[in-house]
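does this look right to u?? guanosine-5'-triphosphate version
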Amino acid sequence: MSTIVALATPMGRSGVAMLRLSGPEAKPIASMVCPGGPPWRPRRASLRTAIGPDGPIDALLVVWMPGPRSFTGEDVVELSCHGNPVIVELLLSALIASGARMARPGEFTRQALLSGRTTLLGAEALRALIAATSPAGVALAHAGMSGATGALSASLSEALLDLAAELEARLDHPGDELGYEDDGAVIDGLHAVAGRAAAAASSWRAGRVRIQGATVALIGSVNAGKSSLFNQLVGTARALVSPTPGTTRDVVERSVLLEGLEVRYLDTAGERSSTDDPIEAAGIALGRAMTAEADLLLLITPLSAPPDPAWPELLERTAALPRLRIGTHTDLPAHRDAPPVDLCVSSTTGDGVRSLKAAIRAQLSAGASGGEQLVVLSQRQHDLFRSVSEHVEQAAGALSSLLGPAIAAEEVTAALERLAELSGEDVREAVLDRLFSKFCIGK
Ligand SMILES: Nc1nc2c(ncn2[C@@H]2O[C@H](COP(=O)(O)OP(=O)(O)OP(=O)(O)O)[C@@H](O)[C@H]2O)c(=O)[nH]1
Ligand SMILES: [Mg+2]
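got this back:
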């Protein structure tokens, strides 16, 4: 068993940087690099001097946490030095020369999972806690850390085990209607479980936005007023505005906090049907590629101008995507053929911008409405809840059709397996590899 080491804080200049050692040799290695000093006492900070081959490296604050009561469950030593990358490199080299090896991404948390100090759901909640870009994301990660995802998974498993028992009774004693509930009640029970799993899965969009932040892209024809509105939304004159069509060429982006959510706004090159300028064409293509992944599209059209010939095509192209249709130029008289829109603004006076921000915020929280609890913290969890819902719906379909209870029981078993995978009872090495590769080194 090796002893691993990594910088636990970001690389750069700062007041303090912290390195962490974990493994059976953590304390001997730390004491080799920090010879002498006060006696080593568990869980007490002590001031020590790290010595390298060429002399003293730095004064450190060192804490030794013997396993199993440590983050990883192994012996852990945390060494806080001054936050200078040169000092960090010297210290890492000294620790590695004394027998430690560099940790891989997420290896500390993986070790915590192996030692039973955390669960798979706990590790995912921790990743969400570190990744969260907004206070709402931090709150969601805390819900996951206190076991909300596991509790939902356990409650669905319990309900499914009861339903599985009903199905087994039909298989063991076919024709004996006395011993079990009628099919209608079992089918209702299956629909209820499928509905709860589907609701959890669909809350992931709102959850993802809380943890990772949201991307909102402004798109529309040239000169529609995208950059003017972008500047209003981000609160500074970040993008160039001019009456010349084709002013914006590159994608301009800026992140702001919108009522507790981090929103990354993208201003894009205006579209026009034909351009012989290869740079403008490249800008339009880049805008299209970047907006394909957006959580919300703002389609912009000026209401004072004659109808934009590209508008119907834009509406059609984005029909299946989350979007808001925004009419600009409300400070000017509206054209009599102005198309219907969801909201109107004037980027010159700022009228309507507040309502637009509220509408954006509401759209980005969609899926979390109705007091439903958000408990899904990763794409993996989303996919598994969705799969549970599908298997359970299949089971309900089988029981109410000629396929019968045997097929229904198989589907319920498959759903239970997905739940076991979700909570980490039945987890494959490949899943762990994928999860921990997304952690930073040192976590
Ligand atoms: N009166 C009025 N003028 C506006 C409004 N919004 C934008 N404009 C003007 O319209 C012109 C074009 O605005 P931009 O924001 O540069 O338009 P754009 O969609 O970014 O244009 P491209 O980058 O060329 O695609 C500028 O002269 C703006 O001052 C508005 O709400 N009211
Ligand atoms: Mg522009």
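The mean pLDDT is 90. idk if thats expected tbh
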